[in-house]
Amino acid sequence: ALRPGFIWSFGDGSMWATTNTGAPFPNQTITHTYSKPGTYSVVVVTTWNGAFTHNGAVRAISGEIVKTSVATVTVVSAPTRFTK
Question: What is the mean pLDDT of residues 67-71?
Answer without folding.
Answer: 97
